[in-house]
């Protein structure tokens, strides 16, 4: 059964946090989100297993904000995510898990512990995957 839920509002060209709205969400598909220049914070959705994002043509960077607020030494970003599909990010240049300042403590953070499928298509400017992603696959 597919249901269409009302989305949180757009704020400053990005979607506001989802973690307070959709705690039991297991699959999320974004298509043609051309108005957003930053991805929403999704990393703290506790039940999310499949995430497809297609057509985020203005996003230039995927950074720590994508993994959710409050990711620290006791939190896990995307704790149950098994499949991540990113496609048609024509401006995406950079993807990182943490900011430069946080890199010294990043070994204590956990990202995507259940990920077994990662698909990246049509991201011509993306030069490399984030450090630490190989530990998630």
From TrEMBL:
* Record domain R13L1/DRL21-like LRR repeat region: where: 20-54
Q: What's the short name of a Pfam family annotated to this entry?
A: LRR_R13L1-DRL21
User: What InterPro entries does the entry give?
Assistant: LRR_dom_sf, LRR_R13L1-DRL21
Q: Which domain of life is it from?
A: Eukaryota
What Gene3D superfamilies does the record tag this protein with?
Answer: Ribonuclease Inhibitor (3.80.10.10)
The identity of this protein, by name, is R13L1/DRL21-like LRR repeat region domain-containing protein
Organism equals Dendrobium nobile (Orchid)
**Organism classification:** Eukaryota, Viridiplantae, Streptophyta, Embryophyta, Tracheophyta
């Amino acid at each position: 059964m597919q249901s269409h839920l009302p989305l949180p509002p757009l704020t400053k060209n990005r979607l506001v946090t989802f973690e307070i709205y959709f705690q039991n969400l297991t699959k999320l598909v974004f298509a043609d989100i051309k108005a957003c220049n930053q991805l929403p914070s999704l990393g703290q959705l506790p039940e999310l297993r499949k995430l497809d994002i297609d057509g985020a043509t203005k996003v230039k960077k995927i950074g720590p904000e994508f993994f959710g607020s409050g990711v620290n030494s006791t939190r896990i970003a995307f704790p149950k995510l098994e499949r991540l599909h990113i496609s048609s990010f024509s401006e995406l240049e950079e993807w990182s898990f943490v900011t430069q300042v946080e890199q010294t403590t990043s070994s204590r953070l956990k990202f995507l512990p259940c990920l077994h499928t990662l698909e990246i298509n049509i991201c011509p400017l993306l030069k490399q995957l984030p450090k630490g992603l190989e530990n998630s696959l």
